[in-house]
Design brief:
- This protein has 501 residues and is mainly alpha-helical.
- The termini are close together.
- Helices cover 75% and strands 0% of the residues.
- It is globular, with a radius of gyration of 23 Å.
């Protein structure tokens, strides 16, 4: 640990540097010029046009099958890119580098989770759901256990996703605020309106193809920043050298203390349950798995998604190492040049790439694209879930396809408005990555349990499923809500590994 006196030196060093070497916030805002706005507007405009194309000119989105599953004739490439993009939000692009910058690379153990969970999906979960071809996977719980288990699980999932979406929205708004000075409360409604527009109008096909388009911006921005960052520091070897000296390189921390922030065990065990919930039983993932024509296609999608997610996580972790290699002797968070950890990467991008016109625009477009893809997929998924598991259960007869499609579009509009309002709550909470994982953790373990309980234990009954589901939901909700309240009050802090020298 270093005292206050040691922290004073970098402040004067920063103030004495030229603006080209270490630009101030005001000069950074000037760098986001009309070229950057043009790139950003192009991404939003193309996403909206995809919704118009599929909603008005291509296909019939007024049927349940078309709106929720793309007519079950989607190709492997767009479905794969959509699944990757919908699971790579701004939380990954901004939260993971900030996590690595402050706490080291222990988070990278998540790659082991992706490999093991993919094997579980291929062996156990995918064969069941692809054979059933259900509009809602929670119908499985009704067939296996009871109507009450289905409703409770579906309700828990829907609430969880509604609480998760505002976090996804807040992340790019925070980045946009960092580089433009525009208020979070201004940019949030604009971005959300575009997302709600093409999701409502175009259904799954618009969501999938807009995800594929947005992934180009997302992955392209990451690769460009890595290339520029390596050239600034002096190459990958120099990046690893600096991080090694700063004690950042850590993957196999075998500490068994359950209260430690990151260890090999907390990451691999905790995130395995997280990824089972995200990929094996998540309605959005299953919706895409059964949108391809054949089971073999679904298997290929699963494998390619695992490869894509592992590469994206690797790139995000390396980006965090790049940021530390740049600021290892002058922490922008400690000297309050950056207000929130989630803003460290936008600050870094403006610092190293501000001199290249359009690069910052590509980066911000990539971050916003990642959020749009996750939000659109989530809204499409939760609308279908609410319709299948709640609206339909209130009526004895099914609606016509046109009425069903209209109801789901109305649900998307209502939920989108709620999520925008909840951003006001999210900005009061703690770190991005930890907050997102904590909120989703309330339901992930419970839902992973109840589905696995039904598949792996033939003697399991409805009473056991309901008891386990309720106990898990109440227990984790109590733990997570209490922890977030304490963090928001500033009574719980996690000391990082930042070394100001």
């Amino acid at each position: 640990m270093y005292g206050v006196k040691e922290q004073i030196i970098p402040v004067f060093q920063m103030e004495n540097q030229t603006s080209a070497e270490n630009p101030s916030i005001s000069s950074m805002l000037m760098m986001f010029n009309w070229i950057e706005y043009l790139v950003f507007s192009l991404m939003l405009g193309l996403s909206a046009l995809i919704g118009v194309y599929y909603g008005c000119y291509k296909g019939n989105q007024n049927t349940v099958s078309e709106y929720m599953q793309g007519g079950k004739k989607m190709g492997i490439f767009p479905i794969t890119m959509s699944l990757i993009a919908s699971h790579v939000s701004g939380i990954t692009l901004l939260g993971v580098p900030a996590e690595i910058y402050r706490y080291g690379t222990q988070y990278y153990a998540i790659v082991f989770c992706i490999i093991s969970v993919t094997a579980f999906i291929l062996l156990f979960y995918l064969p069941v759901f692809f054979k059933l071809q259900l509009n809602s996977p929670y119908e499985y719980l009704e067939r296996r256990f009871s109507y009450n288990v289905r409703v409770l699980a579906s309700f828990a999932f829907s609430i969880s996703l509604i609480l998760y979406i505002p976090v996804v929205i807040y992340v790019p708004a925070l980045a946009f605020n960092q580089v433009t000075g525009m208020s979070v409360h201004t940019i949030t409604p604009i971005v959300c309106l575009v997302c709600i527009f093409y999701t409502t109008l175009g259904g799954l096909k618009a969501v999938v193809w807009s995800d594929a388009l947005q992934s180009v911006f997302t992955f392209g921005s990451v690769l460009i920043i890595i290339a520029i960052g390596c050239s600034v520091v002096g190459g990958p070897s120099e990046v690893f050298r600096i991080n090694n000296e700063g004690h950042r390189l850590e993957v196999f921390n075998m500490d068994t203390n359950p209260f430690a922030r990151n260890t090999f065990w907390t990451i691999t065990i905790g995130m395995s349950l997280q990824w089972i919930a995200h990929l094996a039983i998540h309605p959005g993932a299953i919706q895409r798995f059964i949108a391809v024509p054949t089971y073999r296609d679904a298997q290929k999608v699963t494998l390619w998604v695992a490869v894509g997610l592992a590469l994206v996580k690797s790139a995000s972790v390396f980006t965090g190492l790049l940021v530390y290699s740049k600021y290892h002797d002058c922490d922008p968070i400690a000297i309050q040049v950056v207000n929130k950890p989630g803003q460290i990467l936008p600050y870094y991008v403006m610092d190293i790439a501000g001199r290249y016109p359009g690069i910052t625009g590509v980066f911000i477009s990539g971050v916003v694209s990642a959020a749009l893809s996750t939000m659109s997929a989530s809204l499409n998924t939760v609308a279908g879930t609410i319709y299948e598991d709640f609206v339909l259960l209130c009526f004895k007869n099914r609606h016509s396809d046109a009425v069903a499609s209209f109801i789901m579009k109305c649900i998307v509009l209502i939920l989108g408005a709620i999520c925008v309002a909840l951003v006001l709550v999210v900005e009061k909470l703690g770190g991005i990555l930890q907050m997102a994982i904590s909120l989703s953790g309330v339901t992930n373990g419970a839902l992973a349990f109840v589905f696995s309980f039904g598949m792996f234990y033939p003697w399991a009954n409805a009473k056991g499923a309901m008891a386990g589901l309720v106990a898990s939901l109440l227990g984790t909700a109590w733990i997570v809500s209490g922890a977030q309240a304490v963090i928001a009050d500033g009574r719980m802090k996690f000391p990082g590994k930042i070394n100001i020298r």
